[in-house]
Amino acid sequence: MTQRPKGSLFVLCAPSGTGKSTLVRRLTAEFANIRFSVSWTTRAPRPGEVHGRDYVFAAKEDFLRKVEQGFFAEWAEVHGNCYGTPLEFTRELAQQGFDVLFDIDVQGARQLKASLPEACYVFLLPPSRAALEARLRGRGTDDEATIQKRLRNAGGELTAADMFDHWIVNDDIETAYDGLRAVYLAKKLSPASDPDLVSRLLAQWKEA
Ligand code: 5GP
């Protein structure tokens, strides 16, 4: 019987405002085999966000209970709210052969790397501080204090760049998307993503 290969894992991190959501949307729209790892969060839903699709929105006490139960593969406090990746959900998706994309912060990526070293770790970078500041202002969603906080946090996140397998600078969204697509395809073409492929082929030679 032909066994479906296990899915690959992709961790995408980026300072807030770098354009990560746009790239995630494009990649999941182009490749049907990718499933987004739906995190839990204690922050309130933004307009248009759907419970269970974008996040599982939870009360802080429920979130902390899940932390105690070991429900999360990693969790972190980001910009004052808690975010966590459910362990079983992602494990099941990968077992079913889906590629799983994690959109998490740098603290979460560091924790995941300890338990999932086989995942592909991608860091999306702004082309400059000024460009990031302009993008944060252009979104029109944050007040001045929040913009300054996100800029400061971005500086902190950049110091973790060394732990990533790939760096993609988002100067131009098309070029950045080409980079992300290339990383995805290269990972899928590595023997590690389907270690039994050759033995399955060789079995046909034996049967012939
Ligand atoms: P937002 O509130 O803008 O959706 O996300 C804020 C930050 O939290 C982003 O950097 C996002 O990548 C991160 N984040 C989302 N889900 C998780 C998660 O499950 N774990 C961690 N560590 N960070 C997350």
From TrEMBL:
Its EC number is 2.7.4.8. It holds the Pfam family Guanylate_kin. Transmembrane segments: none annotated. Its main location: cytoplasm. Keywords: ATP-binding, Cytoplasm, Kinase, Nucleotide-binding, Transferase. One of its GO terms (cellular component) is cytosol. CDD domains: GMPK. Residues 7-185 form the Guanylate kinase-like domain. It is found in: Cytoplasm. It catalyses: GMP + ATP = GDP + ADP. InterPro entries: GK/Ca_channel_bsu, Guanylate_kin-like_dom, Guanylate_kinase, P-loop_NTPase. ATP binds at residues 14-21. GO terms for molecular function: ATP binding; GMP kinase activity. Essential for recycling GMP and indirectly, cGMP. Belongs to the guanylate kinase family. PANTHER family: GUANYLATE KINASE, GUANYLATE KINASE-RELATED. This is Guanylate kinase.
